[in-house]
Design goal:
The protein is 48% helix and 15% strand.
Length: 761
């Protein structure tokens, strides 16, 4: 938003390349602009700091003022007005001197070319770290805006996990930018508003800064949907005029009831924000006239017991709406929010919501994690501020956990967005510990919220003592018990229904690691067998083999030996080509082919097909080896392996038509595979049955399969209407071809079965 230009700061030497020509203001500056740019406007808000801190803040202001000299905002104001306004917002949260200094200098590194080392020298490492956390990354490093944006978010959020003041200053920065965005070009305005609504407003809500959250939503709505915002604003003003008498009457009745009960309370009328009205209309497909809870009341009392006394007074005054009472004091929201919510029916038949809380609860409700600074010196504040701080810290820790398992910035941002949920369900462990999870959470989300090991080994769940599917949706009040097994591991299908970023990142991380380990082992085996055909063995990892491996890795472009094995295992590199190069490097080093190894290698080669050595399939392979779903090979079938590009090894039957087409297209990617003597599990294959329609046909088929000691894993009856005969397609779990033949013979003996055949592509 600034025209970037700078001059040297006294006491610091800067490269000449930083100087840019100054841009003139869009229009002449008024005396008000000059006043806004002065330190005096900020000093008034800093009365909670001591004299030494105010001097340090004044130094930071002078530094920022010099650095931004000659820079102007899109509105034509001096750029320094923006850092002053951001620092002012931080001062309203009573943030410490370091945070105020960082707010004043938050654009100095990005817009003025000032280095972190200079800030450390002048203002100390803590302040410099805050400023660095607020500075976006160099966009020249990234190929797209999205990639740059995702990486910058990751940097800021990780800085936030070390020091939450980073995000507080950033939210103040974004709030002031949103308040002053009218002068910005329409396209940029829309992009920034969408980003604010998608990322920054939910972060504010997640940290309990509800006042900031509501204002960011309102301003984003105004810039994204200006016509709808204007229409809703007019409608609300009109209703406000019609309902003023009702609101005044309810407020007087409530004040009178509290006076009679001798209970001191502050009663405030409140109004739903335009964006929340718009969101409710969209979500529930309502017209504006059908949204009946536009107005409500907030009641602030002195102590926690008085909250429940106030609830009793209200329920005596007006009838409560059943099912609309929520006790967020006993069970706080995930961001530390505490209040009693109740909806009452007014004398005129309209529903009115009341929120009841204490003064410290009110501070946490409006300021969230920032209430830690607001209340840290008061008598009754720390308990409330600390609760928000503790719950905020839990979320920040979850960001660190997600970061540990996520290499890609875009994926990290996706996981964080999942966790920025607006609503929650509250469930219990068998030991009565409360956990807050997003709405739609499943037992798998619950398991990972308890501990990674619990999630990884989860096989079943009981909710309220009854067994439920792992994809069942949890509801508030559920008691959840996870059943685990030592040999269980995460299922890729879980990614289709888990809804927390933590669970999703943990599952993906496990599957990636498992796939990488399997691919690495497969790749090493394939290269060793391909090299054996040259009469050589793999050189050792250390000692005499180090130089050869380094040369080979430079040639392939991999980072390490293990990385090369992974590439071979997933099919990104061909083992025979790598083996040829490795043989040449070994020959240059004086290593000669061994006659016995050469004989073994040649003996393993089948001249009828291209070969990279034999790989044995026993069913214990994981993600790196897949059995083709087109032909579904089972032990006893003649098989071949296709090395996909980055997809690992896919095993087809030798007569599979799909496999033959792939062979014609790229014969280099085919290799010999065979079945191990003792497979470790049963295998699935498809069978087609033509049966007579009649009572109990499915029971006869199932009985025949069971009699042959096989299992049916899936039945497809097609979509055609019933006639005299029906074709069934079964997926059967069998040991091998002999077992399949036995199953088919048993099925043929059934009177209902007319024909049985194995399905082939």
């Amino acid at each position: 938003m600034a025209t970037r230009s700078t001059t040297a700061v006294p006491g610091l030497t800067k490269p000449a390349a930083r100087k840019r020509p100054s841009a003139p203001p869009a229009y002449p500056l008024t005396p008000g602009d000059a006043a806004a740019a002065s330190f005096a406007a900020l000093t008034v808000k800093l009365d909670y700091l001591d004299a030494a801190d105010i001097r340090r803040v004044r130094d930071a202001y002078r530094f920022a003022d010099e650095a931004h000299l000659g820079q102007f905002r899109a509105s034509g104001e001096p750029y320094i007005t923006h850092p002053i306004a951001v620092a002012g917002l931080c001062a309203e949260w009573k943030l410490d001197a370091q945070a105020i200094m960082a707010a004043l200098m938050h654009d100095a590194m990005e817009d003025c070319g000032i280095s972190k080392a200079e800030l450390i020298e002048r203002f100390g490492a803590p302040t410099a770290d805050l400023v660095d956390g607020l500075t976006k990354l160099d966009k020249l490093r990234f190929s797209t805006r999205e990639e740059s944006q995702a990486e910058s978010f990751r940097k800021m959020l990780l800085a936030m996990t070390r020091d939450v003041r980073v995000i507080l200053v950033k939210l103040a920065d974004r709030l002031h930018n949103m308040r002053t965005m009218d002068a910005v070009a329409a396209a940029k305005r829309t992009r920034i508003a969408a980003e604010t609504l998608e990322i920054y407003a939910p972060i504010a809500h997640r940290l309990g800064l509800n006042q900031t959250y509501r204002e960011l939503q309102e301003l984003s709505f105004k810039h994204l949907k200006p016509w709808r915002e204007a229409a809703l604003s007019k409608a609300v003003q009109k209703v406000r005029g019609h309902r003023r008498d009702i609101v005044d009457r309810i407020q007087k009745d409530v004040e009178k009831a509290f006076a009679q009960a001798k209970l001191k309370a502050q009663i405030f009328g409140r109004e739903k924000t335009l964006y929340s009205i718009y969101a409710k209309m969209r979500e529930k497909h309502l017209s504006f006239a059908q949204v009946n809870d536009i107005f409500g009341f907030r009641i602030v009392v002195g102590t926690l017991p008085e909250c429940y006394m106030a609830l009793g007074v209200l329920h005596q005054l007006m009838k409560p709406v059943p099912g609309r009472f929520k006790d967020y004091i006993a069970i706080p929201k995930a961001n530390g929010y505490q209040s009693l919510h109740t909806t009452l029916v007014s004398p005129l038949g309209t529903a009115v919501e009341f929120q009841i809380r204490t003064e410290p609860m009110h501070a946490v409700a409006e300021k969230g994690i920032a209430a830690h600074w607001l209340y840290k010196e008061s008598d009754d504040g720390p308990a409330q501020g600390t609760e928000a701080q503790r719950l905020g810290a839990l979320w920040l820790q979850s960001l660190i956990d997600i970061q540990d398992e996520t290499r890609d910035a875009g994926e990290f941002l996706e996981h964080v967005k999942i966790d920025l949920y607006p609503d929650a369900v509250y469930v219990f462990t068998p030991m009565s510990k409360i956990l807050a999870l997003p709405r739609g959470a499943t037992p798998v989300d619950f398991a990972y919220a308890i501990h990674t090991d619990v999630g990884d080994h989860c096989v079943a769940a009981n909710v309220n003592g009854e067994p439920v599917p792992l994809r069942a949706e949890l509801r508030s009040g559920d008691v959840v018990e996870i059943i685990g097994a030592p040999n269980a591991r995460p299922n890729p299908a879980w990614l289709n229904f888990v809804c927390t970023g933590r669970a999703r990142s943990k599952i993906r991380h496990y599957l990636k690691n498992m796939e990488q380990e399997e691919s690495q082992g497969l790749g090493e085996k394939m290269l060793a067998q391909a090299l054996r055909a040259e009469g050589l063995s793999l050189p050792p990892e250390d000692g005499s083999g180090v130089g050869v491996w380094q040369q080979l890795i430079r040639w392939t472009g991999n980072k390490s030996r293990d990385d090369l094995f992974v590439d071979i295992g997933v099919g990104r590199k061909i083992a025979t080509i790598v083996a040829t190069r490795l043989a040449r490097l070994l020959a240059e080093g004086g290593v000669r082919a061994d006659a016995l190894t050469l004989t073994m290698g040649r003996y393993a080669v089948d001249d009828s097909a291209p070969s990279q050595g034999l790989v044995l399939i026993d069913g214990s392979e994981g993600a790196s080896v897949q059995l083709a779903p087109c032909c579904r090979p089972i032990p006893g079938d003649a098989i071949v392996g296709n090395l996909g590009r980055g997809e690992g090894l896919t095993v087809h039957t030798a007569d599979c038509s799909v496999g033959k087409r792939l062979l014609e297209r790229d014969s280099e990617r085919w290799m010999r595979v065979d079945w191990a003597e003792q497979p470790t599990r049963p295998f699935e294959t498809a069978v087609s049955l033509l049966v007579k329609n009649g009572k109990g046909v499915l029971a006869q088929v199932a009985s025949a399969v069971s009699q042959a000691e096989a299992d049916i894993t899936h039945i497809d009856m097609g979509q055609e209407p019933a006639s005299e005969t029906t074709e069934l397609k079964l997926l059967l779990s069998v040991r091998d071809r002999l077992h399949l033949a036995e199953v088919m013979r048993t099925l043929k003996r059934s009177h209902a079965v007319l024909r049985v055949a194995r399905v082939k592509p």
